[in-house]
């Protein structure tokens, strides 16, 4: 069995090692399914504990449904946007980030209308006219102010960045361009607007499951690094003339904007820590155009302008479960950077998570090999709780994202394999044990059948010996009585003065004992032929008194006085008279022999009768002998067990068999005077 169990444990250990290697391979290769699983785990953390930190510096200007209803469909004429931005910039905000791209000229400008309408141009040819361009008006409105326009990478046909307004970027410690999102095309703004503003990429790219979690801070457009809308906004409000990038092993480590450092850049693609509700100060563009706002609403604030009207704006699902417009997502990303509340996932976490997986695997291997199912279950629970506590603590106290999804799944797999293989092994072990037991049982039966023939002869001889011993034991008492009475008659005949009345009682007793011996033989014969003995209603007290008298008569002239305590109201019992005499004789004789083993003057033998609470006649025979040891009590009623040198060991065994055949019981107890008390019960006669 030990070899079988060792092989099973070794086989399971091999399976667990293979699973561990597979999980490590998945961790290293990091396929899309594993990434989505990890990201969904991080989403759970944000849902349970969303971001509560919020800055008061950001104000959102929304081109919403009310604004479209008042000013017409989108896109608006650039002169309307010029009026809107004039009202905003007139309050001296720290920066105005416009989350809109203007890649084409405004075709509603009067000059373009005339240019595109020859008939109208001919009619106006004789009149002097200097019709304005709405694009020029809009550019004039933005010129000289801290304004950032959006750009879209991956769209359009232009393969170069706006060189004239590209922010100066300096790299330290290595070239990070290979690690940035790379695009071949960029959708730029018109030339008039590029010259008077700075630009940043405002792309929002959700992941394959439709949720946006990370936002690139820098982009690589054909070798040129372009900052995002957020980074360019941060550069302007910090009066930085350049963006300093610190790299380590050609991987972005830090972004420095004058005195502002962005260390939680996560290689230029930080994790946004979302709030459930966007509680920033919001104002409708229509309210600004109609002048119904506070004149200091935008002073020293960061203003983000964008479209939020349904059907025009893009709404994206966030990890906290809410759909936010692009304007609100940019606001939350910028808020995270200003309040240093971006989520962090350092590159070292990969190695820590890999080491943690190895630790789980080793612990399970050791516990499975050395302990049982209970210890494996405890280990499973401990490792699960440890994974949850480690991940949640890092998220709450450090805003760090530690992946617990793979450790939890791996722990579950190891637990299931350990328990299931243990169960299968146990079942196989039991089946093997049952097979071996069956084989042994068959071999045992074969050996028994082989020995049966050898034992038949011995059993027959033993039966004859037992029967002979039983007959000799039963006839011993009447023959001894006949012998004693015959000797007494001989002594009477030897006397000269023969008295008939003297010898007659002795001869009657001889005849009575002879009849008793004959009855004993008849009883044994009937029992041998039919298996039953004749039962009748008997006066138990009378039988006891007769047996005492017979015992005294057969004691070779030696008188032995026995005390009695017989219940006068004792009902008749059911028994066989001859066999009951034999039982009483055996017990009385054993009691007498026991008293002879101790030399004392106060010996007594007491016989008592009563009706016990169970409705049985109970007879007790007590002596003042040495008593019995526990070992003697244990074997006392077994055939051929005796404590006397000349004993056959059959008297008590036969007596118990007789009593039990009548429905009674025979047992022995210690008494208060140090001897033994034999008790037996007989059923009442109904």
UniProtKB/TrEMBL annotation:
InterPro entries: CHASE2, HATPase_C_sf, HATPase_dom, His_kinase_dom, HisK_dim/P_dom, HisK_dim/P_sf, Sig_transdc_His_kin-like_C. Keywords: ATP-binding, Kinase, Membrane, Nucleotide-binding, Phosphoprotein, Transferase, Transmembrane, Transmembrane helix, Two-component regulatory system. Its EC number is 2.7.13.3. One of its GO terms (molecular function) is ATP binding. The keyword Transmembrane applies. It catalyses: ATP + protein L-histidine = ADP + protein N-phospho-L-histidine. It is an enzyme of class 2 (transferase). CDD domains: HisKA. It holds the Pfam family HisKA. The keyword NADP does not apply. The chain crosses the membrane at residues 349-367, 374-398, 404-425. Residues 470-686 form the Histidine kinase domain. This is histidine kinase. It comes from Kiloniella litopenaei.
